[in-house]
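@channel sequence for tomorrow's demo:
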Amino acid sequence: MTTSVRKGLFRTTLPGIGECARVDMRAGDAAPYLERNMYALLGFQPEFETLPRRDVATVAPARMRA
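structure tokens (generated this afternoon):
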């Protein structure tokens, strides 16, 4: 039996979350972003500190129209 490795793609900082890791969509409910402590607790690889850093553009949600 093989176990799939949960993979982190890069680390970034997001408003409302802070420093976090972007994870592979195969991570299920954990996807797409995990805080540092959850990333480590759930056994994602590689180690958080070794993930490359990337800035992510955030888009403000569209305003609701009446």
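heads up for whoever presents: The beta strands are 8-14, 18-23, 33-35.
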